[in-house]
Every structure is written in structure tokens, then in C-alpha cells.
Amino acid sequence: MAVTTRSRTTPARRRLRTVVAAAGVLALAACGSSEPEVPGADGSLSIATGGTGGVYYPYGGGMGTVLSENLEGVTATVQETNASVDNILLVQDGGADIAFALGDTTADAVAGVAQFEGREVTICTLGKLYDNFTQAVTTSGTGIRSVADMRGKRVSVGSPGSGTEVIALRLLEAAGLNPDTDIQRSQLGVGETAQALRDGTIDAGFWSGGLPTGALVDLASTGQMVLIPTAEYTEALAQQFGPYYQTAEIPAGTYQGQTEPSPQVVVPNVLVVRSDMPEQLQQDITRTIFENEDRLTTVHPAAADLDATTAGDVGFVDVCPGARAYFDQATG
Fold first, then answer.
1. Secondary structure letter of residue 319 according to DSSP
2. What are the CA-CA distances from residue 123 to residues 173, 245, 272, 277 (Å)?
3. What integer pLDDT is reported at residue 285 of this predicted model?
4. Cys staple from 227: which of 42, 92, 262, 330, with CB 3.0 to 4.6 Å?
5. CA distances from 36 to 42, 124, 262 (A)
6. Selected residue with higher pLDDT from 54 and 140
């Protein structure tokens, strides 16, 4: 969705015009090379999000609105994608300028492992946004009440190239299951997963997202959705992959019919850009997002977790220098 609304010029906007103009000169100098142009060089910012049934897409739409309204000369748009893995590759290759990504996927990208083996990824983060809750779900008639119970069942592990798929496969292995042989494996986005559970064409599915997730709200309204706890595997995942795996509870009442809290593995979400984005543009984007928390919260409740005092506490990817400058000012 493109947003073209403009408001009055501010010093930040005048700085941004200078940044964009300078970036344009750099981009012209690079003509004829195979390198993607400098992010934001033409005044457009593309935000890679996720599927429409998740949190990234509406949250990204809200970001697009506040960036377009508050940064002179910038039009921000959102892309529907398969989420984390695809998003990082889009940013790296110049297909997007800003991307939502899960912490574990981002760490893999920086280390050049898993789906990123053999790929050079040069990204930094504009900060932590909120925690993604692993939401393993089934329906009441399947009898599945743990990840181990998924043996022999029809299970969706998330869209190909998504952060959900990364954590789902790791959880299945932590539960002693081989994702290739011990389940009948599907790769569905959260909307498709919810529909397949409703239709009875799968028995369980994984989703990693903020609370609440719209597609699961709809599924829970049938009175049949059951959340499957995953927190028993947090320690094993953290030891094997990194401390970004933590435990938190989905509070009781988050979804219709959920009478008890559900302990789950959580992973932080970060906003990433390519490292060659101009520092002033990094700073202006970061400031605009964090100073518009109230507006973004009206788009999705996950935005209420924006906190400039802790957003720069990221140990698995470099914080962009422009974002760091804003966090230092905000907490100084």
C-alpha cells in the first residue's frame, strides 16, 4: 500500500532530503555495476513484511503511513512476503529497503548458516520491536497436546522461507521428531494453516507471531482451537542455537476459549536494513517509528512494546549506527 500524504517540513525532513540527494549521487556513480542501489536513494522505501493474516503486514502498513507522513520526500510501501528468510534476502538484493525478521533467522543470516549458507549478507538492525510467540495450534478433536504428539500427524510448519518454518523444524527435532519422516509435512502460511485446521485437512500447525494473530483469532472463534505449549524446549534451543530463545506465556484470554496461560518459546523481532543505508536515513526512520508508538498501537497492539531504552540491546546483529545515535539521544 503506497502512502502519499505529506505534512509540514521539519528539520528532520530537510536533513532527509539532503540524505536522499546524496544517496542518489552515490547510486548514479554506481550505474553499470551489478550492486543494488543505495537504499532510499530514490525517495521510496519498500517494507518487506509477511502474510496478510499475520502481524508483520498490518504493522508494516502502519509504519509505511507514519514514515510517508513524517519524512519529506519519502513514500513508503509494504510488500506481502513469506516473512523472515525471504525478507532478509530481499533487503540484501535490493528488492526491499526495510524488513521485519525474527532474531534467530537474522542470526543465521549474519553467520551465513542454514538457509543463508554461501550468501554474503550485510545487514544491521534499527532495533527490537516486540517478541514473537511460537503458537503451535491444533483443534480439540485431534488429541494432540504436545509437540511430541505430532508424530505421524499432518502438520504445517509455516510458509517456505519463513521464520516460522525455522523454529518449527527446530522444535520438532528438539521433541525427538524427524520433520522429514515423522510427520506428514505441509508448508502453509498462518491464514492457510487456520483454514486447513478448520477444514480438517491438517492436524496441527505452527505460527510465530505477535499477540493476538488475526488468523488465529478467527480460528479460535470456532471454539475448537487448542494451543500446544512449547516452552519445555526453550533451554535446549537456547543451548544449541543462541540466547534469543526465551520463554513467555500467552496470557489467558488472548484467544476465545483460552482459559489458561500457555507457556511458549519466544524470539525477538527486529527491523533490518542493508548496512549501506545512509546513517541519517537510518536515524530518521528509527526516530519516526519509535516516536509514533501511539499511532502504531492503533494499527496493532504489538507496537505497544516499542521501547527506545531497550530496543538497541541486540547481541546477534549489529545495531545500525544511525539507530544507535537515536537510542543514545532518547535514553541520554
1. B
2. 29, 21, 6, 9
3. 98
4. 262
5. 12, 16, 44
6. 140
CA 212, distance to chain mean position in Å, is 14
Strands (E), the chain: 44-48, 75-79, 98-102, 123-139, 154-156, 184-186, 204-209, 225-228, 246-250, 262-274
pLDDT score of 30: 40
Q: What is the pLDDT of residue 42?
A: 87
pLDDT value for 161 = 81
Cβ-proximal residues to 119 (8 Å cutoff; 6+ apart), any chain? 89, 92, 109, 112
- Residue 301 CA, chain-centre distance (Å), reads 15
Residue type, 22: A
158: pLDDT confidence band, cut at 50, 70 and 90?
very high
Give the model's pLDDT for residue 34: 52
Q: Using CA atoms, how far apart are residues 3 and 67, in angstroms rounded to an integer?
A: 9
Determine the distance from the C-alpha atom of residue 15 to the mean position of all C-alpha atoms in its chain, rounded to a whole number. 29
- Per DSSP, the three-state class of 246 is strand
Q: What is the pLDDT of residue 174?
A: 98
Q: Please state, as a whole number, how many other Cβ atoms lie within 10 Å of the Cβ of residue 151.
A: 15
CB 185 within 8 A of CB 158: no
Q: How far is residue 164's CA from residue 84's CA, in Å, rounded to a whole number?
A: 8
Rounded CA gap, 76 and 85, in Å? 21
113, pLDDT greater than 80:
yes
Largest CA distance in the chain: 62
The CA–CA distances, whole Å, from 183 to 72, 149, 179, 180, 203 equal 51, 10, 6, 7, 10
Integer Cα distance of 31 and 120 in angstroms: 21
What 3-state DSSP class applies to 273? strand
Q: What is the pTM of this model?
A: 0.81
Q: What is the per-residue pLDDT for 210? A: 87
